[in-house]
Specification:
Number of helices: 12
Structural class: alpha/beta
Helix content: 25-40%
Number of domains: 2
Strand order of the largest sheet: 2-1-3-16-4
CATH superfamily of the largest domain: Periplasmic binding protein-like II
CATH class of the largest domain: Alpha Beta
Largest sheet: 5 strands, mixed
Shape: globular
Strand content: 15-25%
Number of strands: 16
Length: 397
Amino acid sequence: MENPLNIHRSVAASALALAALLTAFHASAQTEEDSVKSMQAQAERAGVVAERGKLPHYTRTFDLSALPHYVPKQQLTGWIRIHGSNYLADGRLGELWEKGFEKFEPEVKISYYLPTSAAAFAALDYGQADLVMSREPGFYDLLAYERIMGCDPVQITAATGSYDVAGWENSTVILVNKNNPLKGITLDQIDGVFGAARDGGWAGTNFHPEWARGPEKNIRTWGQLGLTGAWADKPIHVYGFNLRYSTATEFSDKFLHASDKWNENIHAYAHIVQPNGKRYIEADQITDALAKDPYGIAYNRYRGDRDGTRRLPVAVDANSAYVEHTLENIQNRTYPMFSEAYFYTTVKPGTKMDPMVKEFLRYVLSQEGQAEVMHDGKYLPLTADVVREQLKKIEDL
């Protein structure tokens, strides 16, 4: 007769196996449901972005006379493979640059593959692209590239991000409830409000302990931002993006010394798919919550004003004037929370930049190339100072 203890163990093991199977089935069902929702959300997003990209979103002209005209240094023949951001194709800018460059270099052809900037660095890693348009690389994007290529990518600013066109690197704003009396905020105060005590921060794949700061610089009440009376001891309620999004990473990189330590009470939102199949995007969830919270403050991508909230002017430091968030102040970069659109290419140590890529970048950075940015009406054209800085970067490559 079999030992009753063994029978008990066998039954217990079977029960555990069944439980594991049911759990796996349940997880699988959830995964399948999530997959369907994800595909629905991506399909809706694609439609919205394509519709948004058809027309210019601003008709304002900017003085580009201080930018250099494009003059080819040599006539070349061949192909440039450009991968990455779908926004080059969802708008008209990719086509405008292609046709504009062809007038100067008729024997250089451009091949575009523009599904998403999320895939851009893989194309560089595997030698499938000569040039990619992308957001700044995340930690593992850069780590993989460095390990494969043995160098860092060359980053060239191609345009200033848009004022309010979602997707086209629209600018970042600091929002408060409409009843909040705060007049403005500095970059250090933004760090104090949204960040936390930390042991350092990141520059690319290098950690810098010297960027550490203590809890004494945390800002958690409105009195610490200068408000008095009934506001002085009220807690600051913080709103922003889910930390998995590149928007959160970019915000941290620029304004929190690239730290991963955030305000411990941040309400972090993400896109969700509602029962009706429509996306409820995080930017709208943030403004909806903030409109109901007089003690709230948020960072957000600007997509137009929303009821119940208002934008704060931002100063670089306590000795500088507050700068209003306007289209002009984004383009001229006096408002400090502008965004950028980048090109990346590979130039290994001891080699030179592909001459066709170099000529194309010189065209993009010219008066003619930036006029096409203005023509497309979503990104904003670069200033002469930024153009000079970018041209200097590629001059000796």
